[in-house]
Description:
By secondary structure, the protein is of the alpha+beta class.
Amino acid sequence: MYDGNERLVVANRHYCEIYGLTPDDVRPGTRFRDLITRCQERGSFQNLDPDDIYASRMRRIQTRQSATMIEEPRPGVAVRIRIEPMADGGFIATFDDITAQQRAEQQVAFLARHDGLTGMPNRVMLRERLEQALATVSRGQPFAVMLLDLDRFKAINDLLGHEAGDRLLRLAGERMQACVREVDLVARLGADEFALVVAEAGLPDSAARVAARIVAAFAKPFELDAPGQDGPAPRKVSAAARTAASTPGSELAWPKPSVSTPTRIPSAPWRIAAR
C-alpha cells in the first residue's frame, strides 16, 4: 500500500518473498521509485531501466482506475499485479506468484497439439500444417506428405517391454526430426506411425531425398537402455522404415495398387542384436 505521495505504508512477507526483499527494504516511508531500485539490487528486473519500470507503472496508476498486469521480474517467474486506487490519491497493489499456474496452462496448451510420449507434433498440429500448406499450393509452393511406419514394432514391446518400445519411439522421432528442416514438420500419428510434411518441395525428388536421409539415419542401431542404466549388456535393435510420399490432392493413406506409384522405400524386418 502506498499513500498519495508514493510512499510505502505497508508491505507483507509474501511481497518480500516474490522479489527477494528484506524487512529493511520495505520500511514504511520508502518511496515507490526507490523500492524498484531495491528490487533490482536483489536480482529482479535485470537489464531493465528502473526509470522505465517506474514510468510504466505510474501510467497505469495515474489513470485512477483498477488495473491488472503480468510481469516477469526474473526469468521463469510470472507475477500478476492488481492495482486499486484509493480516495486519498494512494493505491493498493497486490502481487500473486502465478508461475506454477502459468506453467500448467502452457503444458495443457502444449499437450493439445503435441504427443505426450515423444513431445512431437500430433494429429491436430499436422492438420493445421496441412491446411496451411494446401493454401500455398495455388501460389506455386508445392509440398510433400510422407507416411512412415516402423515395421514389426509390436515385437519390440512383446520381447523387450513397453518401456523399451517407448524409448524406441522417442529415439526414432529424434532421428526423423534431424533429417528435416525447421520449416518441415514431423508428427506422430499414434502407435508406430509418423507423418512428415516437407514444405516447398520440388516433387518428387525432394521427398525422395528426405526419405533416403531417414533410411540412412535408421541404419545405426537404437540403444534401448537408458544412459547409465546398470544391468546386463545393452539391448540394441536395428530398424527399417517404410515410407510413402503423396502429392496434394491424393489420399493421405498408404498407397493402393489403383493409384499412381509413390516414392517408396522397401521395408525390412526388425533385427534384434544379442550381445
